[in-house]
UniProtKB/TrEMBL annotation, chain A:
Transmembrane segments: none annotated. Residues 1-23 form the signal peptide. GO terms for cellular component: plasma membrane. It comes from Bradyrhizobium forestalis. Keywords: Signal. This is BMP family ABC transporter substrate-binding protein. It holds the Pfam family Bmp.
From TrEMBL, chain B:
Pfam families: BPD_transp_2 (PF02653). GO terms for cellular component: plasma membrane. CDD domains: TM_PBP1_transp_TpRbsC_like (cd06580). Keywords: Cell membrane, Membrane, Transmembrane, Transmembrane helix. It comes from Bradyrhizobium forestalis. GO terms for molecular function: transmembrane transporter activity. This is ABC transporter permease.
Amino acid sequence: MRKSLLALAAGLLLAGSVSAASAADKLKVGFIYLGPIGDLGWTYQHDVGRQALVKELGDKIETTYLENVPEGPDAERSIEQLVRAGNKLIFTTSFGYMDPTLKVAKKYPNVHFEHATGYKRNPNMSTYSAKWYQGRYIQGLIAAKMSKSGVLGYIGSFPIPEVVSGINATMLAAQTINPNIKVKIIWANTWFDPGKEADAAKALIDQGADVIMQHTDSPAAMQIASERGKLAFGQDSEMIKFGPKTQLTSILDTWGPYYIERVKAELAGTWKSEDTWGGLDSHMFAMAPYTNMPDDVKKMAEDAQAAITAGKLHPFKCPIVGQDGKPVECKGGDRLDDGQILGMNFYVKGIDDKLPGK
Amino acid sequence: MELVEAIILAVLAASTPLLIAATGELVAERSGVLNLGVEGMMIVGAACGFAGAWLTGSIFIGALFGIIAGTLMSLIFALMALGLAVNQVATGLALTILGIGLSGLIGAGFVGERISPAVHLHIPGLTDIPLIGRVLFGEDGFVYVSIALIVGVWWFLYRTRAGLILRACGDNHVSAHALGYPVLRIRTFAVMFGGACAGLAGAYLPLAYTPFFIPGMTAGRGWIALALVVFSSWRPGRLVVGAYLFGAVTILQLHAQGWGVGIPSQFMSALPYLATVIVLVLLSRARTGGSTAPAALGTVFVPDR
């Protein structure tokens, strides 16, 4: 009996080493995640992208991910760990991994890195992000149409350009429908704290907002809006389950096509350092179905989406007037240029609030 | 007026998990045990509480699951820190790390599911009184339980013989032992009570506050509960003040932002911590002065037989 067990064990060991040998021929692709893959938001969507990658190229690659990796210097160790495990292409999926990724990239010039939402690059380090403000513009149009009180509620995470440009895009769109539309902004100063996000949504609704928009990660605000019979937009992922009669639409991060494209380039040996900032036209994100709105509003949203995708409509089309009443300089001809949007640190006219830190 | 009522309701909801978790930790610390694993016990309570409610459809059973899960977690702590006399700080921190991992594992199958939250009390006539009706007679069960708990703990600690013995263990375990009290057994019960409360506080989050489960949803509330115990100078009365004050400033700063008061939001977010520290420091300065911590807090006790 003992002998047969030993033989079985030896057989298993052999089988194990064989599969490891075949795996060595595959390209190893690593991912660093900020949250748990079950966060239903940011990290979840990155993992959906990874799964799409595995489905498409699973026979040629092997993927590994590390979740719950804190931002900042600590991330360096995790990234290096993936390098040492033999990963040749590594995606670091949060803004705060920027400097750690760059540091590791300089140390290992033969490994390729892809950093999400940052701006620092290296010959072996690309950056990628999405033009979510395009989606926010569509949401602004819908919100202005659907709001009865004329007051929108906006839950922000941190006053960084990505969030500020989202608020501005929303308001610029909303003002085309209702010039007197108001927005109340509450900064949660966190990306993820369901309780606090719920409290912020309660405060906004108690103060008269009837359409809730969020730039934080959990479905808590959607659920509060649903409980109170108001309307809301999801964030990052499909949240309609938490508000079947509440969600108007949601900006869905769809990283899959980009991940597949980049890994294909790596496999073909044509990978090079690039800066990708894709919008609706390049499918870096998608809009969830337009729900809980009348047909004319839905049509308006779909038309706007088509126009933005075709490049006929630009959310930051000039003239754009700042809070001080002075027009903002137009560096991109008839619109703001990418640099102005990526570094946006002002509110447009019509927002009765002060940008924190200004 | 309606806004005032809405704010009070939000404050009570935000303060309740802090109050419940801190009440449990206060008892554990009064017996001389510093359990830094509150966050870990809470998050496991949240995962199990949600699992229980989702599987049975009953919020009550969910809460029970949370309590049991928190208690089991605290037993791991008791085994290590009391049974094997391992350093309490290290054990507590390890318990938090374990809890965060374990809750993710338990909750993995429940992410994205939703339940209907705990029902709120409704007494026709009383609940409809303007301003105070819903605040006093329209809360969910957890809020009433939290108040009963803290009153019960106050009564137990200061009005019963058992409470006196528990405090004696916390202040001087050698003397308590010499008098013939089973120090380790008493501390184990205190730790278990702390775990049960942390589990209930954790379960409150997915059962009443935000009725879904997401890994990490306690978002540091266990640490705030721990801090509240210290700032309350280990007194139940001050703990109530601290918990509600913290909740009140948290909610009011959100409203202040909505009104556009124009104070930087980063400062506003720090305000609850600041306000709680200042008020509780003033409170403890006003009367006694000096340290009011249980004298044997956090020290290892090995009975000599």
